[in-house]
Write a structure and sequence with these properties.
By secondary structure, this protein is an alpha/beta fold. It folds into 2 domains: 29-194, 3-Layer(aba) Sandwich (Rossmann fold); 197-283, Orthogonal Bundle (Helicase, Ruva Protein, domain 3). The protein contains 12 helices and 5 strands. It has helices at residues 4-8, 29-43, 59-72, 88-98, 108-125, 142-153, 171-176, 182-185, 199-214, 223-233, 237-253, 261-283, and strands spanning 48-53, 76-80, 130-134, 163-168, 188-194. A 5-stranded parallel beta sheet has the order 2-3-4-1-5. Helix 4 (88-98) packs parallel to helix 5 (108-125) and helix 10 (223-233) packs across helix 11. It starts with a helix and ends with a helix. Bound molecules: adenosine-5'-diphosphate and magnesium ion (MG). Adenosine-5'-diphosphate binds next to helix 3 and helix 11.
Length: 284
C-alpha cells in the first residue's frame, strides 16, 4: 500500500494503527499494574485472574503482550481470541488442542481425561506453568464458564495445574453475578479494571507511538490539538488513535507540517456526523 503521508512526516510505519501490536503498546501505570498483577497470579499458580475494561481501553493489546511474556518465560501459554463456542465440548477440544494435548477423544469425558493427564505431566511433573488466556470473555456463556471452572479445579496438593486469565467487557460481571456462577466468581483471586487515560497519559501514549513509528522523532500535534483529541476521545485509547490518524491524513492533504486544534476538531466533527448517519441507517 502506498502511504505518501508517511514520508511527508518522516515516518517508517503508521503510528496510529488500530492493530493491537505489542510494539506500539505504551505501558501506562494502570496497564503496567494490571500486567504485573496478572503475571503474578499466573507465576504463583493461584488460578484465575480477570481484567475488565470498556471497548478500546487496551484489553486485546494487553492479552497479546501477556501471552508473549509467558512464552518468553518458557510457559505453555494459549490465547483464545474469540470464545464464542456453541458447546462446552467444542471449547474443551479447542483448549486441549491449543495446549498441545497429544490426542483428543470423541467424547467429552475422554477429552477431559486426556487434557487432565497432559496438564498433570506438564505442570506437575515437568513443573512448567500452563496458562490459558481468553480475550472477549464476556462472550462465554454459563455452560462454558462452568467448564472453565472444572478445568481450574485440577490441582496438586499445593497448586493449580491450569492458570486462567480472562479479558472482558463489563457484561461478564453481570453474567458472573448469577447465583449459579457463584462458585466460579469465588475463584477469582485478582480483578483489575482498565479505565480511560488522563490527558497526560494520552499525550505520553501519542508521543511514544510517534517515536516508535519515526525512529525517535517528535510528533507534529500542537498542545491544543492533543487536548482536543483527549476531549473528543474521552481518554479512550482506540478512539484517540483513530482521531490522531485521521488528523494526520487531513494535515497531509492540506500540506501542513503541523496538526492544529482546528484540524482535529474538523476530523472529530466529521467522525461524529458519520457515526450518527450510520446509526440512523441501522435504525431504519
Ligand atoms: N496503552 C496503550 N498504548 C498504546 N496503544 C494502546 C494502548 N491501549 C490501547 N491502545 C490502542 O487502542 C486500540 C484499542 O486497543 P485494544 O487492545 O484493541 O482494546 P480493547 O481490546 O480493550 O477493545 C488499539 O489500536 C491499541 O493498540
Ligand atoms: Mg479487544
Amino acid at each position: 500500500m502506498d502511504l505518501p503521508h508517511l514520508a511527508y512526516f518522516g515516518l517508517k510505519e503508521e503510528p496510529f494503527s488500530t492493530v493491537p501490536s505489542p510494539r506500539y503498546f505504551f505501558l501506562t501505570a494502570m496497564h503496567s499494574t494490571a500486567l504485573e498483577k496478572t503475571a503474578y497470579v499466573v507465576a504463583a499458580h493461584k488460578g484465575l485472574a480477570v481484567v475488565h475494561g470498556d471497548t478500546g481501553t487496551g484489553k486485546s493489546s494487553l492479552a497479546r503482550l501477556l501471552h508473549q511474556k509467558f512464552l518468553d518465560a518458557g510457559f505453555l501459554s494459549a490465547l483464545l481470541v474469540n470464545p464464542n463456542y456453541p458447546t462446552p465440548n467444542s471449547l474443551l477440544r479447542t483448549i486441549a488442542q491449543e495446549l498441545g494435548t497429544p490426542r483428543t477423544s470423541r467424547s467429552f469425558k475422554g477429552t477431559l481425561d486426556t487434557l487432565k493427564d497432559h496438564l498433570w505431566s506438564t505442570a506437575a511433573t515437568e513443573r512448567r506453568t500452563v496458562v490459558l488466556i481468553i480475550d472477549e470473555a464476556q462472550a462465554l456463556r454459563p455452560p462454558l464458564l462452568e467448564l472453565l471452572r472444572q478445568l481450574i479445579n485440577f490441582e496438586t496438593n499445593d497448586s493449580k495445574l491450569l492458570q486462567l486469565v480472562l479479558f472482558a467487557q463489563d457484561e461478564l460481571r453481570n453474567t458472573l453475578a448469577r447465583p449459579a456462577l457463584r462458585n466460579f466468581r469465588s475463584r477469582i483471586v485478582m480483578a483489575s479494571t482498565l479505565e480511560r487515560l488522563s490527558l497526560d497519559e494520552l499525550h505520553a501514549m501519542l508521543r511514544f507511538r510517534w517515536q516508535v513509528a519515526s525512529g525517535g522523532g517528535h510528533h507534529p500535534f500542537s498542545r491544543d490539538a492533543v487536548a482536543t483529541i483527549f476531549e473528543q476521545s474521552e481518554g479512550t485509547p482506540r478512539e484517540a488513535n483513530i482521531l490522531a490518524d485521521n488528523s494526520l491524513l487531513l494535515a497531509f492533504h492540506r500540506q501542513s507540517r503541523t496538526v492544529s486544534r482546528a484540524i482535529v476538531q474538523s476530523v472529530a466533527d466529521d467522525r461524529r456526523e458519520n457515526l450518527a448517519r450510520k446509526e440512523a441507517a441501522d435504525v431504519r
